[in-house]
Amino acid sequence: MMYLLNVILCSALFLLVYTLLLKDKTMYHFNRFYLLTASLLSLLIPLLNLEQKNQTLPPLQTVTYTIFQNQESTPPVQMLTAEQPFWSSNNTQMLVLGIYILISSLLLLRFFKNLYGIHSKIRRNQKLPFRNMSLVLLPAEETPHTFFSFIFLNKQAYQRGQIEEQVLQHEFAHARQAHSADIIWIELLQVFLWFNPLILFYRRAIQLNHEFLADQSVLEIHHNVTDYQQLLLQQVIPSDSLNLTSHFNFSLTKKRLIMMTKNTPALKLWLSKLSVVPVLAVAILLFCNAAPKKLESVDQLRTSSGKLQIREKTSPAPMIQFFRFPATKQGVSPEKLAQYDAIVKKYAADENSLPMVNKNISKADREQLEQIFKQMSKEQQNKQNIVFSMPGKPLRKVKPTAEQLQNWQDAKTYGLWIDEKKVSNSALSGRQPEEFSQVMVSKLTSKALHHNEYKYQVDLMTEDYYEKYLQNHQKNKNKAMMLYSMSRPATK
């Protein structure tokens, strides 16, 4: 939604600049380029990612779970979980997407219908060559209009010599300068960006500028402005031409007649053109996607210690993610589920709490849990507090910055672990980024806060420890991991 809003605001800025600084200037070719480029840049600029530097904490938005194995566990990293409402944001997004697709499909159908109508006109009617273009002679009385290299004229008027040379020159200018390509572009924008009301203003401005260009071409050959203006006034009749064409009497306004006699000084033209440069810079600063500088994205599992490594994400993850772990379509019986719950319940402090993370599970119970879990369906697996998963890829090297090492010495905000051991924040004093090969910052929930001493947990690996981690990961890459999920209420 933010992207769509930025598209509208960016297009509004460019249109405002055109209205205030460019519209009244006799630089029609530049204005054509500006309007087309502005309509394109309005789509592209909000997609640009300008990275904000010196951002210590990456935003974490994922639901995770903690690994525990038959060894002493390190402090768990827990993230916020949320109840799934009956009508979730995903349902709303699907509804909005459905409405968008429906309206765009109807507009696209209209677009192709208009194209087919033009094609039918060309195919059914007589055509004559004209200056590398084609004259299409129509039996109906229509205003002269143009579509790419086809100029549409009333057949009787043309055969009787009633089509003035200025009219033909005007339509020839539309065809020679390929104004139909601009109209096709803006028509497609309207199909897919119909929610942006400014597209209609862009279309109007582009088509009016086409008329200025065509009028300019006529007056370069026929220099009598008054006679040409009188001819235009005589041609004011209702037009039945399709909206994809350029027709002779489009927007015959006072403005168009005035622009025929206007002459803008060269210095003013150059200043107007140069004014576009700072506007472009402002648009990029205001509407680009400014993202905080992130630590390098890493995978989730750290198998050497049995502790979950959180992967940074920019969008919420599924409640539980499984890596290549088998499941069945039919699932297990209620009796098997009860047996699974009974084993899990043995490792809870009481009937109303979740299993203890720091309590060892016997080898026999673990094997039995894994066997039953493997026979469950995906739906059944997603409902368990204790789940199994295969390890992901090893964590890639991520080196902190010197500024981050300085910031993490604040014990009120950060808890610090180096090589899986809790250490004092002052241990980073005098340390250099080159000494570390892996770093992860995790935001803790209220359940994981250590008496409100800090809000974030920082895990660092030295170079030697990281090499040992890689070796251990390679050794255990085919072993299933037991995970402790926070995605559902405690077993009762």
Automatic annotation (TrEMBL):
Keywords noted in UniProt: Membrane, Transmembrane, Transmembrane helix
Location of the Peptidase M56 domain: 165-259
Transmembrane segments: 6-21, 33-50, 94-112, 269-287
InterPro entries: Beta-lactam_resp_regulator (IPR052173), Peptidase_M56 (IPR008756)
Source species, domain of life: Bacteria
Short name of any one Pfam family annotated for the protein: Peptidase_M56
Keyword Translocase assigned: no
Name of the protein in its database record: Beta-lactamase regulating signal transducer with metallopeptidase domain
Organism: Pedobacter nutrimenti
